[in-house]
Amino acid sequence: MLGFKIEICPDFSIKLGLLPKEYRPKQTDWKNLEQDMNSPVITPIPDWKLKNRWLDKCAAIAVYNNKIVSYSSIIPSYNEHKRQLLCSYLDIKNNQIPTIDIYESASGWTDPKWRLQGINKKLRNKLYEKIDGINKMGMSACYGQGASPVLFKCHWTLISWNEYRFIRSLLGWIESEKYFWLNSKKINSIDREPYCGIHLKDQKYEQHDWNRYYHIWTQNLETTQQVNTQFSKLMNGDIRAWRNALKRLP
Asked: For residues 76 and 100, is the Cβ–Cβ distance under 8 A?
C-alpha cells in the first residue's frame, strides 16, 4: 500500500515519509475521509471503496497525527479481467484484443489546511509511476478543470474529444445529450462542451476557460494513438458496437 506521513522540517517546509508497513487506518478514519471529501466537484465515494482502493494499491494517502489529510486514486479502466469479459461479449479470442492495462486517474483530495504545498501532486506521482511503463498507461476525464492542474504539472497531454474515440470510450462518451461516465456509471446532463482543441502550453494553459469543457488527458500520447488504432481495427470501425460492449462491463 502507498501510505505516507507528513513531517514538518525545521524550516517549516514539509516532506513525506513512508508509513510503517503494518499501518492500517481505522474504519472511522475512512468514514471521516468520506465525509471530508463530500463536495459538489467530487463524485461521492463510500468509505469502503476508498479503503479498498488503497488496499488494492490503487490509492495513496498522506497522514498527519493519525488523520488522512490527502488522498489520490486510480481506477482500472481496462485490465485482464475486463479484457476477458469483452472477449466474451464480442465473441473474439484473447490474443485478438490489446493487452495493455489502462488506468483512469480518479478522485483526489487534500484537507484545506494542507493545500498548495504539493502533497497531492506527490501522491499522484507515486501512483503514476506504477502505471508508466511497458503495457501500462494512465488516462483521465475531467469535468471542468478537475485534476487538470496536477496532470499538467505531471506532463500529461490534453487531447481532443474528437480524436481517439475507441480508447477514450473506456472513460465515457456523450449519448442522447447526456454524458455517460463509464467507471462510476454516472450520467450527467450536458452543461459543458467537450474540449476539441490541442494540448495547451504555459500561457494558453493559464488563459483557458477550464470550467466550460469536459477534458481528456493521457499519460502517453504515442501509446494512446497506437492502442486506439488497434481497438478500431478490432471493431472494424464500429464505435457503437464497442460502446455497447463497454456498457456491459460491471
From this structure: no
pLDDT tens-digit series, residues 71-129: 999 988 999 999 999 999 999 998 899 999 999 988 889 999 999 888 988 999 899 88
SS3 of residue 210 by DSSP: helix
pLDDT digits (tens, 9 = 90+) for 138-157: 999 887 888 888 888 888 99
Query: What SS3 string covers 15-42?
Result: EEEECCCCCCCCHHHHHHHHHHCCECCE
Phi, psi (degrees; rounded to nearest 5) at 27: -60, -35
Alpha helices in the chain (DSSP H): 27-36, 47-55, 80-90, 119-130, 148-153, 165-168, 202-207, 221-234, 239-247
- Residues 46 and 93: their CA atoms lie apart, in Å, by 36
In the chain, where the domains are located: 2-247
Q: Does domain 2-247 have CATH number 2.40.340.10?
A: no
Q: Which residues pair with 105 in a beta bridge?
A: 74
CB 4, CB 60: distance < 8 Å = yes
Distance (Å, rounded) from C-alpha 161 to C-alpha 217?
10
Does the global pTM surpass 0.90? no
How many Cβ atoms are within 10 Å of 100's Cβ, its own excluded? 18
Residue written as cell 499501518? Answer: 23
Between helix 239-247 and helix 80-90 the angle, nearest 10°, is 120
Return the number of other C-beta atoms located less than 10 Å from residue 242's C-beta. Answer: 22
Phi/psi at 174 (5° precision):
-95, 130
Taking alpha carbons only, the member of 65, 30, 75 closest to residue 250 is: 75
Sign, Cα dihedral of 42, 48, 51, 55: negative
